[in-house]
Amino acid sequence: MRTIAAGTAAAALLALSACGSSADGTEDGEVGGTVTVFAAASLTETFTEIGEDFEEADPGVEVEFSFAGSSSLAAQINQGAPADVFASANPANMDKVVEAGNAEDPETFARNQLVIAVPEGNPDGVTGLADLADPALKVALCAEEVPCGAAAQTALDAAGVALTPVTYETDVKATLAKLTLGEVDAALVYRTDVAAAIASDGGVEGVEFPESAEAVNDYVLAVVNDAPNRATAEAFAAYLRSDAALAVLTAAGFQAP
Amino acid sequence: MVLLVPALLGLAFLTLPLAGLVIRAPWGTMPQRLAEPEVLDALRLSVVTATAATGLCLLLGIPLAWLLARVDFRGKGLVRALVTVPLVLPPVVGGVALLLVFGRNGLVGAPLHEAFGVSLPFTTAGVVAAMAFVAMPFLVVSVEGALRGADVRYEEAAATLGAGRWSVFIHVTIPLVAPGIAAGAVLCWARALGEFGATITFAGNFPGRTQTMPLAVYLALETDLEAAIVLSLILLAVSVTVLACLRDRWTATP
Amino acid sequence: MKPADPILDARLVAERGDFRLDLPLRVDAGETVALLGPNGAGKTTALRSLAGLHGLSEGHATLAGRDLDRPAERRERVWVAPERRGIGVVFQDYLLFPHLTALDNVAFGPRRRGVGRARARQVAADWLARVGLADFAFRKPRELSGGQAQRVALARALAVEPTLLLLDEPLAALDARTRLDTRAELHRHLERHDGAAVLVTHDPVDALVLADRLIVVEDGAVVQEGDAETVTARPRTDYVARLVGLNLYRGRAEGHSVRLDDGTVLTADDAIDGDAFAAFAPSAVALHADRPEGSPRNVWEATVAGVHRHGDNLRVQLDGPLRAAADVTPGAAAQLGLVSGMRVWAAVKAAEIRAYPA
Predict the structure, then answer these.
(1) Does residue C181 have a pLDDT over 90?
(2) Which pTM does this prediction carry?
(3) Are residues A89 and A134 in the same domain?
(4) For C83, which of B154, B163, B176 is closest by C-beta distance?
(5) How far is it, in rounded angstroms, from Cα A251 to Cα A245?
(6) CATH code, A205
(7) Residue in chain A lying closest to B101 (CA)
(8) How far is it, in rounded angstroms, from Cα C168 to Cα C156?
(9) Is C247-357 a CATH 3.30.390.10 domain?
(10) Hey, is C60 helix, strand or coil?
């Protein structure tokens, strides 16, 4: 069963779907069955919602997500994991998959910026990156090896601020958790993470700073070359660029590409 | 003979991943990689903190094992179950739990911070605490077993010779269960050395201060698989060497 | 303290389920008392309560005028912990600390009592020399033979110069040959020991050789007490009679006759009146195919219930009006053609039967 809306998108892509062995009992090139999406952990909330919308639009489709760090997902895909779609939190990890010949032509579907997360009410009166250099302030950053850490370093460099945090966390959620647990006074995290924390009453707020524009993080997406369900994968990729999906992403703090 | 096949399968299952690491290791660039100061820092920190954590476990764990093995009290079964909680608790959860108690706003941490200005998270002491938390059950279980197996009549003999309870404990009980203590300490040290989840959660990650080898490996995986393999092999080499030496020496019969 | 007072004065009462031990015990300085009894009689419980490893439920234990344990009687219980009792114990399987050398095992007591390391080792070396083990000072217990371990255990107990020395089955773990030597050696040390000694054993030979006085304990109570000669000559229970190898009967005496409970009358040279024991040795029984003529005053017909070797002789178990054991030479047995179930005549001279008040 296909609805008109999903059908239109699918029809446009039908021509593109060249090969692809179907593992889900659907005919080649027909939208339906299960589509497996490997997505960055930071997309957990938004993609779950978008996935539900997508399924609702086409009852014959089921979306399965595997959320993890982009680098882990890239490694899994390059080791032959049966993914249809890969949504990476940064181009670098997507590049690994492209270089390995497992995907082509990734496209940016959302952007994320850093904000300074502080406890609700901003007790230390943080207004910008320079305030974080105060040695009395405990700051958590992401490690430079992960995307949010690289972005943070770029922003700090742009601001000309030298900062010694108390910890370089392994991912952005852990960085924010240090703040929500009250162990640090500020953390450099994505705007989306702060939005999610506010939505779940995490007792934090975000302080925007101009240098974040220097370190915009692109979220990129590609259909995997060996996608078991290529037609539906293409349909999902197309749906991500619809207004409905964009509305979900922006509500979560992402920016349009 | 029936047991040989599953035994060999088990051995293969445990050692093949190790072989995978050895095969994939970038042997050509190994010397340069080993000389990197970050690597040595992380290794030194790992060994120092795992050893300190083992010391802490011995200090607190042996009396706890003694309590469980030798003193009858109500709710002992529950206490014994609680002692083993860190074994089943995901280490990350353990780290969060430690933060809730010893963190800056924690039950114990907050008054401690107010009174003395000390705070465990993000410090090397915090790493030791996180390691001790996850590793102590290994020691307690091992030593308790040894204490249960030890003949209490030796302690009675010591008492008749004029040894008070403390003296009996130090001069007779401890030496009698030394093999059990050694086995427990070795397990404890190994567990502490490999500790990741509780450490990253409770103590964070700062090179030279709280970045132990497993944390360094994890971060290296993000960018450089070969570096991660090198770090893993170093960790393995050090732990296997230490464990092999200690096991033979300590667990020999007195 | 008057010299006449015993150095150990105790009434040891301990309960353990249905079992109750109630044992009065007084031992003089320099004296060795053996608690002799079957397994489960309460001997070890008595020893453990003296050592302070087991509290008394009633009674008291007083050593050299000092109360060690006195429950209930006063408002506050008097209790001295084992490490402060000044009592040395030699345990049944020695319990030498496996992680210490023989020397350090012996030095353990002095060390715990505050003697410096060097001095304690000197004391220990002296004691090891006294028990003939100077060359074994640096052996670990597992490198010692049973007899050597026993001597180290003795040296260890004596090295704290105990007022009271307790020995729990000190020779039970040794083989027969070692036992003989070690028993003689132990006897020498017990004689030299100024304090009191209490020895627990189920072996009558150990008790007879080592102790000045025997206390026979059965089911937690004293059944007989006295020196070796009295106990062996005049047993008062079947257990003691078996231990010393006598036939023992109980009855009522009138002059030279003792009428047993089953109606049989034994005639003895001793003349007493009232409740009495009559005892004779198996070797005093003569067996005949026909009723013997002549002097024996005690003659009865019996059935052979069993025959087995006993030393150089054969021991014959007799059923009949009087159950008894008789020792005969193999030659005599062959001549009689002894087999189970045959009828024989048994005879005992009146001079061989001892009768004494019950």
Answers:
(1) no
(2) 0.78
(3) no
(4) B163
(5) 10
(6) 3.40.190.120
(7) A181
(8) 14
(9) no
(10) strand
